[in-house]
Every structure is written in structure tokens, then in C-alpha cells.
Amino acid sequence: METFLKQLLSEFNISQSKSSESAIAKLSHNAKINELAKSITAARKQALNIFQMYNDMEEFKESQLILPNAISKKYYEYQFNLSQFPHISIKEIKHLDKVGLAFDTTLAKIYGTPSAAGSMDLQISFAGTQAENQTEDIKIVTLIVSADPKDLWLNKPSNKNDLYPKEDNDKYAGTFLNKHIVVASQRGRSHAHEGSFRDDHFCVKKLPLDWEIIAVADGAGSAKFSRQGSRIATESLTNSFADELLLKELNDRCIAFFTSGSGTKPESNEQPNTIVEDQQIKNKSSIINILYKSVRGLHAELTRFAQQEEIQLKDLNTTLIFSLAKKFDFGYVILTFGVGDCPINIITENPDDIKLLNMLDIGDFGGGTRFVTMPEIFSNPNMASRFAINKFDQFSKLILMTDGIYDPKFVTENKLEDKEAWRIFMKDLNGQNEDNLKVDFLNNEGIEDQLLSWLNFWSKGNHDDRTLAIIY
């Protein structure tokens, strides 16, 4: 109380003296003075609160508030930070409903999924938190809703009256050996934007003696008729293996190769191991030679077609990968070939055991993309390394893909045998993606449509054709 009285005397310029000290001492316990002091302190505090409230309102109104841009068709959320303005509250935001957004007054949060792109001025209605002022004021803030990048791409139908027409999308589901297979191929956004054809192609075929084959090709975007090149590559290649005599020889060679030449008797001056090794080399060479003849025959077929149509062979430029497979008593034999930048991967019964089954022509190692239409492929010393002979007791998935999948999902070649990259990829297929699209491998009904929908994923800068084949 003494402090209050001394401050009061000072405010009124009354100098303190012996008598004033005595008066202060007598009044320090005066009930009336105590009552007045409390009411004055409360009034001052109330006046200060009112000032702070009005000050917060003015500062909020004058503050530079920039709302982050929203994106059409994508969930948006923005929470106001009112910690700098504790004496105000936002009552309403007008015009949000025009784009499908709403405002939560309790959380001071804008939320929702904008339905369309555009720019609008929002009217933020706010007021002080004290009962002394319920007068609302308005602050104008601009919200920009950017277009969904997908919506910027046109989807023009291809001209079916052009040479070598092809459907914009293709899909297939069925059985493969004693497993299932699903394949989907989608025209890339770059082609759709221009109304040009899909260059990817695939072909699945059941063959005599329980062999089966899946071939996938990615026609070069720079080649005028690569869409036809990829079609010929896959269809001609798979048809070339329909010869039962050829498959009988392949059967015998695979059995001999994977049973390590048992039953062979060494001659007098030869060691058993040497004979077995020599026989294995012969068996391997024979298997590769059978595969080579089909690929070589394909090149001849492409050459004949180019001459017949009076076009250049390079107009048909296309990559090619295939897997020729059969289930024997001793396991699954999987024969593969690849030219270009499309991978073939197998996931064994151990989900962390992932193998790349073909050589890729990418980066410094391959010197750039190669095409099966290139004659130099067949004269190159590394031609035999393009073929692979593998046997697996079991496998969970055999996967072939074009670079439209490989580039956005794996980016680099070393990720193709990285278990974490594959774990992420399989989770993506299982629905852990921004579109919540799932390929249900447990329920085969409509799986080809699910995979085709999944292929529509968004990846900035990756708008090529996409083809993905999964044997599971």
C-alpha cells in the first residue's frame, strides 16, 4: 500500500516530506484507501488488456500473411499461428467453400481438398477475445490453388488411321507355369499429350513341352516406327520358340546342364572332373546357341520388314527382354536375354534375395542404350553375356519392366539388387502411394485393371511408356 501511495504522490507531483511519510503510514491500513487502490490497479490492468487487444487486432490486420499454395485435388492444410496475437480469434473465413475448403475455428485451421485451380481473395473475419470488444474486423489474404500437374497433360487419342496403329493401353492376366502372371502397358504422358502411339509392347505365350515365355520391348522414342518394331520384336521372338523339336533339344540340354552330366564315363587318360566341366561348357553353349538363333532370326525378320515397307531399319529401333521358363522336377529353369535398358529381376522365396537376370545397356558400362535392330549387337564379343541360364528351387516373383518403371522407381542400376529399394517398391504396389492404388496379388480378380491403374502414378520428369510384367 505504501508503494501505491508514493507512486500516486509522484504522479501528482506532490513532494514527499516528514508529514507525508506520517500520513502514508497512517493510511497504509485504511480500508477505504485499500479498496480504492485495488480498483485503480484493476482498472489499469483492464485498460492495458483492452489496449493489447486493440493493438493485436491492428498488428494482425497489418501483418504480412502469405498462405502456402494449395494444389488442386490434393489435400491441403494450413494452421494459423496466433501466438503473436494472443488477444484475438478468427471467427470465419469467407469464400473457402468456393474451392471445397473449410475452416476449423477451434484449431484455427484451413483444411480440405481443393476441387479446382485458381486464385481468390479470402476474407478473414476476426475479433478480440475480450467481452469489451466483439466488433469484428476483416483481413484480406490471397490463396492460390495451383493446377494438379497431371491436369496440365493432355490425353489425345492416337490416330488409328496412321500406319501400324496400336492401342494406347494393354493388359493381360493368366497363368504362367504353376503360377500367375499379370502384365499391363500404358502409353506415357508425353505420347498422350501429343496424341502419338505407345511404343512399348509385350507378348506372353504358352509353348510346347510346358515351356512358357514373356517378352517385353520398349520402342525408341526417337524412331519413327518403333511401335511396330517393339510389336515385331515381342511377337516374332515368342513365336520362334513354338517349334517342339527346338524345345525338345532345349529340354535335353537343360536337364543335362543342371544334373551336372551324371552318367558320363571318363576315357582312360582323362579325369572325371574335366569331362564333366567340358560337357557343362558344351551344354551351356548349346542352350545359348538355341536362344541366339531365335534372337538372330528376329533381327532378320525386322530387316525383312524394313525392306518390305521401304523404311530404314533404325526406324524400328527397340529394346527387348524376355524370359523363357519351365518347371522341372529339379526346379524352375529361367533363361533370359536382354538388349537395352529394361531389367529382369527375380525375388526368390527369401524376400531379401533379389537378383538381376540380365545385362543392362546403360551409363558408362553399356555406352548408352542399345537396340535389337543394331547389327553390331550380334558381332560384339559380349553377345553371349546377354544370355543368362538360371535355376531356382522356388521364387516368389519374376518381374520384367521397361525404363518407364525403372527410371522413377529405382533411378540407378545398383538399386535393382538393393533389398530396401525393392521393399519400398513392393509396398508401393501394395497401396502405400499417394493415390492409394493397390495391386492385390492375393485376389486375382481384376488384377490387370489394378496394375494398369497403378501405372498412372505421378513422377516429375518421368512421362515415358510404362510396362510391367509380374509372375507370382
Short description:
The chain is of the alpha+beta class and 472 residues long.
Core attributes:
472 residues, alpha+beta, Immunoglobulin-like, Phosphatase 2c, domain 1, five-stranded antiparallel beta sheet, 12 helices, 25% strand, elongated, Protein phosphatase 2C
What does this structure look like?
- This protein is of the alpha+beta class.
- It folds into three domains: 60 residues; 79 residues, Immunoglobulins (Immunoglobulin-like), CATH 2.60.40; 303 residues, PPM-type phosphatase domain (Phosphatase 2c, domain 1, 4-Layer Sandwich).
- Strands 8-9-18-17-14-15 form a six-stranded antiparallel β-sheet. Strands 10-11-12-13-16 form a five-stranded antiparallel β-sheet, covered by helices on one side.
- Strand 8 and strand 9 form a beta hairpin.
- About 2% of the residues have low confidence.
- InterPro entries: PPM-type-like_dom_sf, PPM-type_phosphatase-like_dom.
- It holds the Pfam family PP2C_2.
- This is Protein phosphatase 2C.
